[in-house]
Structures are given as structure tokens and as C-alpha cells.
Amino acid sequence: MLAYLIRRLGAVIVMLLVVILTTFFIFYVLPKWSGQDIAVLFAGKNSGAEQLEGIRQKLGLSDPLLVQFWEFVKGIPLGRDYGSGDDVTHCGAPCLGYSFRTELPVWETVKDALPVTLALAGGAAVLWLIGGVTVGVVSALKRGSFWDRGAMITALGGVSMPIFFTGMIAMGVFVHSLGWISMDDSLTTKDSIGTWVETMILPWIVLAFLQAAMYARLTRATMLEVLGEDYIRTARAKGVTEPVVIRRHALRSTMTPILTVFGLDLGILIGGAILTETTFNLPGLGQEAVKAIQGKDLPMILGVTLCTALAIALANLVVDLMYAVIDPRVRLG
Amino acid sequence: MSDLKKTGAAVGEPVATDSPAPSAFLEVRDLKVHFPTDDGLVKSVDGLSFQLEKGQTLGIVGESGSGKSVTSLGIMGLHTAGQYGKRKAQISGEIWLDGQELLSTDPDEVRRLRGREMAMIFQDPLSALHPYYSIGKQIVEAYRVHHDVDKKTARKRAIEMLDRVGIPQPDKRVDAYPHEFSGGMRQRAMIAMSLVNNPELLIADEPTTALDVTVQAQILDLIRDLQKEFGSAVIIITHDLGVVAELADNILVMYGGRCVERGPAEKVFYEPQHPYTWGLLGSMPRIDKEQTERLIPVKGSPPSLINIPSGCAFNPRCPYADLPKDNVTREVRPELAESDPGHWSACHLSPEQRERIWTEEIAPKL
């Protein structure tokens, strides 16, 4: 199990390096090839030649690409110094560079936005996993019943309705009409848990509803398949009571495909629940990504992309470990 | 009958039915298992009766879809357990196990008999064992469902059973998972699991079909040895006449959900009465005789269980269907008739015709 863990962690690090290389290439090299000057992106179109040259020097844009790449990678664990001589700006670890737009360190922005996104994705994930799996299991066990049909039609509706639609309606009703909830759109870690929950509760429910709908359908289909397996019949042939057959024998097998999808979904959400964050105006990573892309803020895009990749990799790692706990065949393979 | 019961208290009183409790350990009377589907009623088993005594082995033989497995699952009560939202199987008739009629017994009561009084070995041990639990855990579960003991005691019992079925190093292998076992070992573990509660009735549904030929004989030997040791009644379900030749005291040949011939094994093998049995024997490879002619397959395909042919269900495939007069094979369903004591068959051919065809046409070719 330990060897498995080490192997998986190594794979995560390699994957991150590849992500850095790819994004670095796309964002720093492509503009160069297409004749765009990164220094102009940083300083603005009306800057003088001297100013631009200063920026090139400071950011090390005239260095060979490999050197630039190495400096960037090294900056993440060690921090880095921009410029030379008297004009040195130290960027502490983890250094992801400075935003072109705000001229603040990228990490500062990411650090503020990440908790919002983590809270959004994490809270919604708990809700949708519990809700979706429960509804799916009950639907499978009551297949063809009124409950089953109702739940599956609702789920179909849930899957089909976009989040900005349900989100707008939810906000319209609970925030604007009824005034039950007031949402804080400049959420920081200094705010109280109460403020966080009040701001997050609608996004959680709306996001969870959308996802739970998918999970309910997946759970139901998987459960029905598992219930037809030979080993379920064996369990019954042993005289095991039906609730135990469901809990111990069927549910455990049902969870494997659900976990796989869950790992991907969680990673994607952490990487940017852009629609949800925009709909509810939450200051999370997704919002930052949108702003960065609109402002051609290359270091910011790179920073957000890296965080996303890390989140997806870690979420998948956790899922794979859970997978190994559930299915002994994974451990040995 | 109380002397046959293991624990009198838990089994409960026999339920009153029209007919008296039989003296046989297991008696199936006029069992019908029908499945309603969109295409019509599938009559998987349509009036099957047989008896089985303790210590005896009954081989149920037939091709795919003849109702063999459906019969065994019916005895185990597995057509009614956990059929979520599926259309319910319609089961009628009587199944008497040790003086208790199972079809009229409360399902939870039948569940308590499963695994303890009657146990089952399935065809493919890889899919019949849960892939996520160790062999030991699965045996422990089977034991603890029916015995109020702690895990340690149950584990000891599991190791003991693994040892008994010939698994080497049982104290280590008990923690292995099914995928770490070979096919033969898995089936041994499955047998250990089914016998952990000393069941009086063991149903083996094609126990060797999914195994290598080299281990098939070992598994059959094991089942025979264990039966001698435990004195259980055994039903072996198979399409392989070689398997029943090895094990069975009595043979029941099924076709289209009904019994077409049953009797003592040597009678069915050496004086078979039904053309379908002849066909099965003719299609069986023999190693003890020089093969001069090709195997003779039973022509045609198994009957639709929704529209079972009228008259004798075998008539569309029977080479002798025209011998009886007045088109009787296509219009009247033949009833089982006793040709020798204990040897029954359902065929319109007269005993003389059968005698002649068997000795002149069939036997010389086998």
C-alpha cells in the first residue's frame, strides 16, 4: 500500500511538471512566435521603447527560453528575484510571478480565491454525493415505482437545467424577494463561518442539485447492474438478509464507478466552477480565471492553471487511494 | 421426521397443505416456475416432480434453457428474494424439504434455511465470489449468518473448511482474495463456503463447467468424498452426462421445462427410454471406445419456452415422431410412465418400438 502511495505521488509530480511545461510554452512562447511582445502586454501599448526594455530586463524576457522556464519552476518551491543590481524585487515562495493587470503577486490572488472555490466545491460535493447516491439506491431498489419515476424525471430536469438558470431563480427568490439570505461577494478567510455558510448555502444547493441529478442516475444504473451479479445471488444463497446484501455486498461495488467520476468532477470544480462563481458572484478561482483571460494576464492564467492541475491531480489521488481501499485488485495491480 | 432435522426448534412446524408431507427428504411436486415477460409467459419449469433421499445424488441433465438452473433456484427460494421492481416469477407446486413445504413458508423463514439446511455451489466461482472480500471473510459471513459466534471462532471454522476441501496453507490462504486463487481453488473455496454449515441438501449448478478439464475430475471427486462424509443429499445440475455418470445415483433428464426421463443412473445410461436421452448419449464423446463415426448432435434447437410445441415438446426434433399413430406426438402431451421399477419416461413410442430402436439403431453406434 505504501509503495502504491509513493508511486502515485511520483506520478502527480511528473504530471505537474508536464502541465507547467505545456502552459509555459503556450503562454510565453506562442506570443513570441505570433509577433506579440509580452512586455507590451505587461506595460500597455503606449509605453516607450526604454520602458519596455526595462521590463524585459526585469522579467528576464530576453533570457533563453530554457533559462526562463527553469527560473519559473525554481521560483515555485524557492522563490525568485526579479531584476539585477540595485533594482531587485523579491518574490517569495511559492512564486508564480506578478499579475500583469494588478501587479500583485499571483500567489496572493490565488491564495485568497482558492478557499472560496474549495469551500464551494467541497460543500457541494458532500451534498451531492450523499443526496445523489441515496436517491439512486432507493430508485434502484424501488425500480419502476412512482418514487423511481419521479426521482428520475426530476434528475433529468436537474441535469438539463443550466446552473445560471437555477442559480438566478434561487437568488431571485431567496436573496432578493424573500430576503432570507444575504450573500457576501467579497468573502475572505477573515470572515466568520456564519458568513461563509450564508454566502455558500445557495451555491452549494444549486450546484449539488445539478450534480446529484447525474449521480442519482449513475448510482441507479450501477446498482441495478450490481444487483444482477452472481455474487449477490451467492450472498442470498448463504442466507444473508436483504438489507445486509444491499449494504455490504451491493453498495460497495456500486461505489467504484461513482468514485471515479467523483474524482474527476471534484477536480474540475476546484479548477474553476466558473459558471457557479459568476452566477453567484463569488470571488473564487473561476472568477479570477475569467478576469485574467479577459485581461491577457499571462502569469495569472498560468497560476490558475497550475492550481487547477494540482487540485485535479490531488482529487484523483485521493479517489485512487479510496479505490484501492475498496477494491483489493487495485492494490496489487 | 424429527430425526431428520438438525435443530427442531428453528425449522418450525410443517405448513398445512392439501397433500400430506412426504417421507422423502426432498420432494418436489408439480413445480412450475413461470416468468411473465413482454413477449409472453416463459414457462421455464412446467410441472416437475422428483424425490431425493439423504446420502443420494440426483443428476439433473438437459441442454441450456431446459429449466435445470431455474429449478434449483426455485428450491433455494431465490426467485423471490430481492427481485427489485422486476415482474415476479409465478411459482406453484410444492417443495418439501425435510417435512417442510417451502413455497408456503414465510420468505424470511426460507432465508434462514438457505445456507444452513440447503446450500448451493455455482457454475463460475470467479463471478460467484465477491471480488472485494477475502475468501475467509466470505466464509466467515456464511457461518455467522447462522451461528452466533465471534469472528475468531468463525475464522477458525473457515480455515478448517479450507483445509478440508484441500486448499494448501489454509491459515494463509484464508486472507487471499478470489482473484488470487486459480479456478479450481476458487471452486474448492466455494464448496468450503457452501458446506460450512453442514447443509443437508447441496445443490451444485454446473460445478465444473467453468473449470479446466484437468481440475474437473478433482472437483467431482471432492464433492463425492464430502457427500460421503457429510451424508447430504446432492443435486448435480449439468449438461455433461460424463459428470452425472461419475456421481449420480439417479438421473433426471429435462427438456423444455419438463422431465422426459428419470430413473436409476445405470438404467438411464444402459436402457434409456426417451429419444432425447438417446440424442444426449449419442452426442457425448467417449474415450473408452474407438471413434469410428462422428458424434451425432441432437438436430434442431431447444424449444421456445413461450410457445412450447403442442403434444410432446421434443416432437419437432424427434426422428421417430411419426411412428406413433394418429399424429399423437403432435397433439397429446405424453405422461411419465414407468417402464421398470423407478424408471420413468414420457414418450408415445410403445415399449416394443423403443426396445427395437435402442438395440438396433442407437446402441450399436455408441
Word description of this protein:
The complex is a heterodimer of chains A (333) and B (366). Chain A is globular and about 85 Å long. With 333 residues, chain A is mostly helical. Chain A has a two-stranded antiparallel sheet. Chain A has 14 helices and two strands. Chain A has two domains: 2-91, no CATH class; 112-332, Orthogonal Bundle (MetI-like fold), CATH 1.10.3720.10. In chain A, α5 (106-141) crosses α8, α7 runs parallel beside α11 (274-280) and α8 crosses α10. The termini of chain B are far apart. Chain B is 33% helix and 20% strand. Chain B has a domain at 275-287 and 294-365. Chain B is built from 14 helices and twelve strands. The longest helix of chain B is centred in the middle third of the chain and has 18 residues, at 213-230. With 366 residues, chain B is an alpha/beta fold. In chain B, the strands form two sheets. Chain B has an eight-stranded mixed β-sheet, sandwiched between helices. Chain B has a four-stranded antiparallel β-sheet with strand order 2-1-4-5, with helices on one face. The A-B interface holds A 140-145, 148, 224, 227, 229-242, 245, 248-249, 252-253, 326-329, 332 and B 76, 78, 81-82, 84-86, 108, 111-116, 119-120, 122, 124, 127-132, 134, 141-142, 145-146, 177, 179-180, 193-194.
